[in-house]
Amino acid sequence: MKTPVTSRSLRQHFTYNWWMYLLIALIALGLVDLLYAVTAYRAPREKTVGFYVYGYMNDTSLTAYLDNVRETEMSDMEEITPVMLTVDDAYGPMQLLTYLSAGEGDVYLLPREQFLNYAMGGTMAALEDDEELMSLFNAAGINLQSGWRKETETGENHLYGIPQDKLPGLSQYAYVQDGFLCVPLSGGNQENAMKFLRILCRDMISVPETEEETAP
């Protein structure tokens, strides 16, 4: 014979079995979150550009700048996003290696030590053959000598990075001490990466005018 359901029996049931309902609710929430993560739309790799900064960045102003670039000059892109890597001597290099190994990120702003390690290891794209990029600095009379490095395996010299100190406007958005802009070969998105790099260098090659400077 079944025990009748009464308010007293319900109170006793929930008193001793409340944890079961909490567990069921947590499992349900986890399944919903997993379903969303699996089915959520992700922009195709060729429709995104990632700007990875191994240092500090002004997330608000940099995001606004990247959104403007996407809307006005790279409208075929669905996303142009900034990512700040951990500035930590132990965890930072591991995080950077993980990103590069996974082919994440299209343009990186790296400190000198990390730039040299990867440039000399042959994992960064040579930039000197991009005529538009080179003409930009040649016209401004800017020497990029510090960005040239010899690859260890081949012994060839290439321009693997653009020194941040040649782009004074960039410091208002992102800053890495003795930093270099570079393009990893592992990204697999070279055309978009180079286009973004050219735009970034063009916009940051001079310091933005202040209100006082533009006042009549």
Describe this structure in words.
This protein has 216 residues and is α/β, with parallel strands linked by helices. It has helices at 7-39, 59-72, 91-101, 112-120, 131-139, 190-204, 211-214; strands at 48-53, 56-57, 79-84, 107-111, 148-150, 157-159, 162-163, 174-175, 179-182. The longest helix has 33 residues, at 7-39. Mean pLDDT is 84; it is low at 211-216.
Order of helices and strands: HEEHEHEHHEEEEEHH
- SS content category: alpha/beta
Q: Give the terminus-to-terminus CA distance.
A: 95 Å
Rg of Cα set: 25 Å
In CATH terms, the superfamily of the largest domain is: Periplasmic binding protein-like II
Mean pLDDT: 84
The portion of residues assigned to helices is 40-55%
Task: Report on the biggest sheet.
Answer: 5 strands, mixed
Q: Please state the second-level CATH architecture of the largest domain.
A: 3-Layer(aba) Sandwich
Tally of structural domains: 2
User: What is the third-level CATH name, the topology of the largest domain?
Assistant: D-Maltodextrin-Binding Protein, domain 2
